[in-house]
Protein 1
Amino acid sequence: MTVKVNRFVKFLNSLSQTGRYANKQISQMERACGNPVYQNRYFGNSLALLQKNLDKDCFCYVQKDGSKIVRETENKHLYGFKLFSSKKVYSDYGGMQIKLTQKQAVYNMHASKIEEEAKKSYSFDGPSILIVRSAAERQSQFPSTELGGSIHPAVAAKQIMSNGDTVYIERYPGV
């Protein structure tokens, strides 16, 4: 059952370890933006938190062992293009970051199609992978996303798919 977070819900959260950790996340979310936070409690004492805004949505999933997954989505409107940006952080109970995944997409509102997608994922001690997919016959030939602009042409492998899309894959081995 999804409920709006208020003092009573925060008090009930303070009775469990997962809830106390969720209260920290709730106060961070409320400080960032004044919009209300909604909470859903799942079987196994895990919690999901959601805060919606016109420009930015924030979703946090707190598992029963204290680890969390945070996903923030930004919606920006740029000259007939829409930029979607999301960041997913996996961290353990102590707050140590285990894995980070960033995704960005540029949507052309005039042509009603996605022009570019970029996804970067890396872990603390593992490999780093950056994948940029550029749609065929797109209007702008330059990378429109921040992640797409950071690709190094000497390191990235270029593939042209059967539908004309261009895919760049850049891999770095783990430490």
Protein 2
Amino acid sequence: MLKLPDITLVAVSGLGYQTAENIKALEKSQEGIEFGAVKYLQFGGIKNIDDWNYHIIYELPDHIHTDFALLVHGDGYVINPELWRDEWLEWDYIGAPWPLPQDDYSYRDDLGRLQRVGNSVSLRSIGLMNAVATREWKPYYGNTNEDGFICCHNRSFLESLGYRIAPLEVAVHFSKEREIPENVGLKTFAFHE
């Protein structure tokens, strides 16, 4: 069995919302893996996806007592535990790659650089989570997704503190949300629908 003592496996929802789906994601993600901790958190006040994103940024870090959190949900979790790579612990954030956008503003960081890695089904360090929780919540081009808040909106801030987000060539092996040219035919550790 793979032992990952420095990682808390976690799923988050509102009270009574997607409980069965999140518990299934936690159970599936534990097949063949022993984590340092496993948590299912239900926060009051989550009425929609925007509320969920806000709680991930500002509430989740208080519940993580390991070096990393692996965030999963009902439509995204570990599917191939045998594909785990210890090198992923060298990064502060790794999620599924984003596709190339069809516009000139999506997936751009605060300096205008194109970013290809995000996604909420992700491995993230407690240091990065605590650092980004100090930042004021602002929608990113009208979107309030927490992965965009981390990987785009606050990217240069996090990099200035020494935090590292995995590059595309590493992330393609971690998780898949959409098929893109860089991940065609690859099996991944996790997925997100």
Protein 3
Amino acid sequence: MAKFLKTVFQIGILYLLYKAGEWITGTFDLMIPGSVIGMILLIILLFTKLLKVEWIEEGAGFMVRHLPFFFIPAFIGLMVYYKIFLGKGFILLIIVLFSTVLVMVTSGMIGESFKRREE
């Protein structure tokens, strides 16, 4: 029971950061999504050691383990607009493949640059 409450509390911390990002976006009428602002706040708090990794580790781990469930509503929403995608399968396939390769190459280059800095 204690582990459950700890996980819920940690998810609550992450949710508060998300809501703070949403508030900042709404208050200052920013074009950046509130979730991105929330992640930036999280990174700042972690780097400044105002928020310790241990305080959110289990909650974040739980959310990452169950990440596929968070995509289900988005995919269901896409089904409503299937007519938009109808007949565009080939171009969508090209876009998905290109963006996947682009992300893989970029991630690899960033990873290699970090590795070189370590050495």
Protein 4
Amino acid sequence: EIPVEELWAGPGRITLEPGEIVTAFVLPATPQGSGSHYERHTPRKVMDIAVVGVASYLELSGGVVRAARIALGAVAPTVIRAERAEQSLVGRALTEESAAEAGRIAATEATPISDVRGSVAFRRYLVETMTSASVLRSAARARG
């Protein structure tokens, strides 16, 4: 058993040894007052490769964020956690302003490359706006 964060070694590479296979992913049950959301941006419907992907998970209590997780895809060699953006949310009431701040912080944590699907600046812009949107949708789901 290994943490999912340790499974990927880089683009198209995993850390399993020859002969090893993944047989299951163990996910804990989510508590009352939690919600999650995934956003992705793809350039065309015919090309199913995300330019940026953002997943967020929040636990709320009385409108205050108890726990936050934000994962960013396609902006680093592997999926990364935006830990500083997560920390900016915890212990605070979730508002449009705090979600926007988390988006700005997440954009600084991303390390995208420029390629045919988008420039570094474009991908950072997407991380910022998509993180904010994902966090707000996670909160809406947490509130029921």
